[in-house]
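Exercise 3.2. Students should predict the tertiary structure of the chain below and write it as structure tokens, then compare their answer with the key that follows.

Predict this chain's 3D structure.
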Amino acid sequence: MTAASSVPVGSGVLVDMPGNAQLLVVQAQSGEFRAFNPACPHVGSLVNPPANGVITCPLHGSAFDPSSGAVRKGPATSGLVEVTIARSGDDLVLG
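Answer key:
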């Protein structure tokens, strides 16, 4: 999927997946990796990787916690959907 070393601490990267899909892989704290479906639950727009401790949707301003995907600010009423990943050496793979 992607290398752990390519995911900056406190931020994240959008990773292209088969079938035109993408995942948002984040490292909110050193060594803690999470992956989320990057579609905002409000209307499906692509969210931005974390900046200043928050994942934001550029369309309507919804904000999400990069550690859990939980919604911090609407208009979204639910959080980002987490996708299970695992670390194998420097590789992050679907779990």
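Discussion points: The chain has a mean pLDDT of 95. The longest strand covers residues 21-29.
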